[in-house]
């Protein structure tokens, strides 16, 4: 089956370290793998409005939400390429993920069932040298994948502050070469490590 990678760029500036690192990793994708790149800043989503318990969400048919929903549904692999902002994903990225909660409630869309078994990946750049400060971002993506029944390929981390810095992080560039070749197991919540059942909690 042809894999279709959707790269969602979440930085608030163009040509940043996160995108540079993501493009290095994407260069290694096998020939024939489809790639679509969308800069979330160029497709501004409205603030998410939580109608989950009031009325049905309606499938967006135009604008940024329609573009992003259709691109998400078409992807076998969704790559969240977000810089580390305040130890988590950027606001552009978070707003996109919040819209998933609405798409889950669009009648007939079966968003969760459609995304189940597909793969979520992360790429991030951060200024901090110690990578564990990115744990909240990693947890956000991993737990979101677990909720959706998706696979999780992990997060490719690179160091840098100003644009281009990440190209001096030789260890990150080495990891980028094989990142997408890694196995992506079904995501699990931390409490499931021992094999407990998935509990159906929000969103
Ligand atoms: C709003 C904002 C918040 C940031 N928060 C963090 C942070 O929590 N930890 C960190 O190591 N770097 C932080 N940084 C630095 C960026 O992660 C770093 O500059 C990164 O290279 C930006 O990625 P980009 O070049 O793809 O935009 C922050 C930068 C901004 C603008």
TrEMBL record:
- Recorded GO terms, molecular function? oxidoreductase activity
Question: Which terms are listed as keywords in the entry?
Answer: Flavoprotein, FMN
Superkingdom per UniProt? Bacteria
Q: Which SUPFAM superfamilies match?
A: Flavoproteins (SSF52218)
Cited Pfam families: FMN_red
Family matches, as InterPro entries: Flavoprotein-like_sf (IPR029039), FMN_Rdtase-like_dom (IPR005025), ISF_SsuE-like (IPR051796)
The UniProt record lists the NADPH-dependent FMN reductase-like domain at: 5-110
Q: What is this protein called?
A: Flavodoxin
């Amino acid at each position: 089956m042809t894999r279709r990678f959707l790269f969602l760029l979440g930085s608030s500036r163009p040509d940043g370290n996160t995108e540079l690192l993501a493009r290095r990793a994407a260069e290694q994708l096998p020939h024939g793998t489809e790639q679509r790149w969308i800069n979330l800043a160029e497709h501004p989503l409205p603030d998410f409005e939580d109608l989950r318990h009031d009325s049905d969400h309606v499938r967006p048919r135009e604008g940024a939400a329609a573009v992003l929903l259709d691109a998400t549904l078409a992807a076998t692999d969704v790559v969240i390429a977000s810089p580390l902002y305040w130890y988590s994903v950027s606001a552009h990225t978070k707003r996109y993920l919040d819209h998933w909660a609405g798409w889950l409630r669009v009648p007939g869309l079966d968003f969760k069932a459609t995304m189940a078994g597909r793969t979520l990946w992360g790429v991030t750049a951060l200024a901090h040298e110690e990578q564990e400060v990115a744990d909240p971002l990693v947890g956000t993506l991993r737990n979101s994948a677990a909720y959706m029944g998706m696979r999780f390929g992990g997060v490719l981390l690179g160091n840098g502050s100003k644009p281009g810095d990440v190209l001096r992080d030789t260890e990150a560039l080495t990891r980028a070469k094989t990142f997408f070749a890694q196995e992506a197991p079904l995501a699990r919540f931390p409490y499931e490590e021992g094999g407990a059942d998935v509990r159906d909690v929000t969103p």
